[in-house]
Amino acid sequence: QVQLVESGGGLVQAGGSLRLSCAASGGTFSSYAMGWFRQAPGKEREFVAAIAVISWSGVRTHYADSVKGRFTISRDNAKKTVYLQMNSLKSEDTAVYYCAATPLVVGFQDSAQYPYWGQGTQVTVSS
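RE: above sequence
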């Protein structure tokens, strides 16, 4: 069983930056692919980014087209933490951001593939 706790959300002006963190406990963190999803009011939860450990020295990352070039996902296996650096924020990035973990290595963009979820952290971008 994996427990996930997000932090780092808040209110920021358009064009600003935020860094989200997700601390994991339980399970073998390095064996899980980690994803970030978001859900805006009245909208379905959508994929943002994912990161998986491919080998002892490499990771694979995936991004939604809407955040490519602005967001960066990273992980620190020693700290059992995954990060989402968000730059050049836009009002449309406003949402609750969720961290998720999956033991799978495919289907990163599908929320149904993630059995473990955090409680979410609110990100509000003012224009």
